[in-house]
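Teaching assistant's notes for section 4

Start the section by putting this record on the projector. Ask students to predict, before seeing the second block, whether NlpE-like protein will look compact or extended. Collect guesses on the board.
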Amino acid sequence: MKHIIILFFLIFNFTLSAQSNQFAGDYTRTLSEEGKHIIEYKLTLNQDGTFVFHSYTKLQGGTPPEENKYGKGKWSVKDNVITFSSNKSEDFDAKNTLDFTNSKARFVAKNPRDKSDKVVKTKLQFLESEIPWMKRIDIFKV
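Reveal the predicted structure now:
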């Protein structure tokens, strides 16, 4: 009986880690107008449930002309929706100032049962965020 219970827990843990492997990785998005404006978003979802985010903005005639914003915290997934959270005492410092608490993003990928030639880029589509410019942003998996 002990062996059956141990086997059950091992299978359960492998299933959980396989699901997080699907979501973990690097995501990026670059919006630009040649020679004028650049906006870059980079998000890394780590296997251990943590994330780091970097936003770089360079606007011609902007004040300031270049801006870097950073954020970090933890992520979890349920039903292809990734929920982000940031702990004020651990995740905030002089560099990391973006608060991803209450941010949610939908994981979008081609269904494995879809055998058509249709190309679906794997992405995160932000649905909710207290960071106003993050709402409805798509960030594609690299």
